[in-house]
Structure formats: C-alpha cells, structure tokens
C-alpha cells in the first residue's frame, strides 16, 4: 500500500483521517474494533464496507501483524424502527420485533 498522507480520509462516512487511525494504533489498538471504539470509524451509513481494508492495511503497516491475523469488525444485527406506542403498551402486535436471545439456545438454564 502506498504511504498515505496523515490528512487522508480513511472513513468517508465519519471523516476519520489516517492520522486518527494511526494514533489509536500508537496507543495499542490492534483491531478494527479498537479503531472503531475510539474514532467511530466504520459506524457511518456504509457500515465499514469502504474503510475495513484500509484500516487493516494501516494496522499491518504499523504493527507488522499479518493481514490474516487482523480480525474483521464485529457485525451486529440490523435494527428496524419500532413505534413508541408498541414499547409503551408492551404490545405484541408487532411480531417483527426480534431479540438477540431468539437466536440463542437455552438448555437447563445455560446458554449454549
């Protein structure tokens, strides 16, 4: 990868520069999620589709970690809007409300 200028924008959505990503790495950041937590990189409308590779390359350049050992960002379930009325009345009329626990198997009181 070519050496980027410190002012080069790495995350277009959140306007995070190369220098900001570099600063996180200098303070011990070694994953995309480390950079994300401290800068909001990857939290914009594209959800890190553009900046993931750039951040991984910057981490690789500064730490010499192989790209294969730099984990991808943590993905979360997409959200959908829910009317306040449904939440306030504890209504079950909106069956599309999904809990993260719906995907977890529980046996004998333990999560599997």
Concise summary:
The chain has 112 residues and is an alpha+beta fold. It has four helices and four strands, in the order E-E-H-H-H-H-E-E.
Structure characteristics:
single chain; alpha+beta; 31% helix; 8% strand
Summarize the structure in words.
The chain is α+β, with helices and mostly antiparallel strands. It has four helices and four strands, in the order E-E-H-H-H-H-E-E. The strands form two sheets. It has a two-stranded antiparallel sheet. The mean pLDDT is 82.
Please report the number of helical segments. Answer: 4
Unreliable parts: none
Strand order of the largest sheet: 1-2
Instruction: Sketch the topology as an H/E string, one letter per element.
Output: EEHHHHEE
Percent of sequence in beta strands: 5-15%
Helix content: 25-40%
What is the mean pLDDT? 82
Question: Could you outline the blueprint of secondary structure elements for this entry?
Answer:
Elements: E1 9-11, E2 16-17, H1 18-26, H2 32-39, H3 52-63, H4 84-89, E3 106-107, E4 110-111
Antiparallel strand pairs: 1-2, 3-4
Helix pairs in contact: 1-2, 1-3
